[in-house]
Specification:
CATH architecture: 3-Layer(aba) Sandwich
CATH superfamily: Vaccinia Virus protein VP39
CATH class: Alpha Beta
Distance between the termini: 37 Å
CATH topology: Rossmann fold
Oligomer: single chain
Number of domains: 1
Largest sheet: 7 strands, mixed
Low-confidence stretches: 1-15
Mean pLDDT: 92
Order of helices and strands: HEHEHEEHHEHHEHHHE
Strand content: 15-25%
Shape: globular
Helix content: 25-40%
Radius of gyration: 17 Å
Amino acid sequence: MNGEDTGQDHQHHHHYDHYSPAMAARLDGFYGRVDERLNARIAAWVTGKSVLDVGCGFGQLVDSLRKRGFDSVGVDLLPACIEAGKQRFPQSDLRVAKSESLEFPDKSFDTVVLKDTIHHVYEEDDVAAFLADVRRVARKRLIILDPNPTAILLLARKIIGHVDPVCGPSDAKRVVTEAGFKVVHLGYSELFAFPMSGGYVGPVMVPARPRMLGSAVLAADEAIFTLLRLLGMGRLVGWRYLLVADVPAE
């Protein structure tokens, strides 16, 4: 996820060009708190003990899962991001992927997670082949957390000049089902806390200090989004969707 020369030819991963290892510093700010909330949402759906995070970036999910007692491993194609992650999370198992194939034996992990990953594969790679590989190494479950391409999100990207592929929840559900998984949950979250955090690429609107300000924004976000979800508006306003799919019993 960076624009530096990583020593590998990722010509079709051009949407990573705006990333750099220095962006990991944003995890020290309000975005880090928003991201940890997303990690907690993912952790709540993990089944089994072993977890693989494909496209782990700096490894914050891997470290969050490790602290929760899971045997978590993260892989990413970009060495610079993995190196930055190892410096930040030295106790976590972060690995540079040698290829786009998952170099693990069959049924290696109880749960496989694709956090902010599926949209890149969907538009830039062979998503069917990729998900077949995921299906091969997953024993029990696949969890996908990805940007929900609402009109608001797409407008915000246009305003800040951020170009990124798109894989909406209906497309994700379709390709996951075609890969042999059974979708058991599809939900939405994040109303205004995520965009106010700036993520990795947007303007930061909530400072790291005082922490009580960030806590108030997170609490308000959760309360208002819960109401909107009850009104059936979650898909229309949520900045992230979470899809959970199980490996059918043989």
